Amino acid sequence: MRTFKGIIVSDKMEKTRVVLVTRLVKHPRYQTYLKRTTRFKAHDEKNEYRMGDKVVIAETRPISKDKRWVITGKVS
């Protein structure tokens, strides 16, 4: 089961949050690090997390067409 840390960038949907995950990728030729961001839709059953919160998301079964992640907790 994969887990990522990210920041919630949208809380406008019911029971769904959009989490922005940033990672560093090494360029194959120039050996420099590039910043890559990915937006995941994550399930939030109780609507308890808000925009700007740092959270941990974990992989789960498909909940809807786009949701394959669930919020497991808040990072302090």
From TrEMBL:
Pfam family, one: Ribosomal_S17
Leader peptide range in chain numbering: none
InterPro entries: NA-bd_OB-fold, Ribosomal_uS17, Ribosomal_uS17_bact/chlr, Ribosomal_uS17_CS
Family the UniProt entry places it in: Belongs to the universal ribosomal protein uS17 family.
Role description: One of the primary rRNA binding proteins, it binds specifically to the 5'-end of 16S ribosomal RNA.
Subunit structure: Part of the 30S ribosomal subunit.
Record-given protein name: Small ribosomal subunit protein uS17
Species for this entry: Candidatus Jorgensenbacteria bacterium GWA1_54_12
Organism lineage string: Bacteria, Candidatus Joergenseniibacteriota
Designated gene of the protein: rpsQ
